[in-house]
Amino acid sequence: MLGDISHVENIYIRTGYTDMRKQLNGLVDIILYNFKLDPYSNSVFLFCGRRADRIKAVHYEGDGFCLLYKRYESGRLQWPRTGEEAKQISEQQLRWLLEGLNPEQPKAVQKWHPHKD
């Protein structure tokens, strides 16, 4: 289904800045050659420009790539700007990010798993 990312296994964001003039082939090249990741995997890859008011997402749907683009009319994203790497985030972190919140919420209750010996 066009643009359905509800069943992706991994979510990656490119930290730092991305030239938002890049189209699908340029973004796939970043995924392949800069980050050495498989763009054909069941993953979504997110990119943000310098102004932090636009986001692009690349997702392979089994029969072709889907490029999603969103421009925020009001407000900015709190996009991680340190380095230029592919950083894996959780669905919750994605929700925070798209709501304009910092994906690294310092006060969020973290999941805890007891040690099994």
Biggest β-sheet description: 5 strands, mixed
Give the overall form: globular
Q: Which bin fits the share of residues in helices?
A: 10-25%
- Compute the CA-based radius of gyration: 15 Å
Q: Which spans have pLDDT < 50 for at least 5 consecutive residues?
A: none
Strand content: 15-25%
Total discrete domains: 1
Q: Strand sequence of the main sheet, in spatial order?
A: 4-3-2-1-5
Count the strands?
5
Distance N to C terminus: 43 Å
Instruction: Work out the helix count.
Output: 2
**What string gives the helices and strands in order?**
EHEEEEH
Arithmetic mean of pLDDT? 88
The helix-and-strand class reads alpha+beta
What are the defining features of this structure?
about 120 residues, alpha+beta, five-stranded mixed beta sheet, globular
Describe the structure.
InterPro entries: Transposase_IS66_Orf2. Pfam families: TnpB_IS66. This is IS66 family insertion sequence element accessory protein TnpB. The protein is of the alpha+beta class and 117 residues long. The protein has one domain (10-98). The protein is built from two helices and five strands. A five-stranded mixed beta sheet has the order 4-3-2-1-5. The chain is globular.
Topology record:
Blueprint: E1 10-14, H1 24-34, E2 43-48, E3 54-60, E4 65-71, E5 86-89, H2 91-98
Brief overview, please?
The protein has 117 residues and is of the alpha+beta class. Helices cover 16% and strands 25% of the residues.
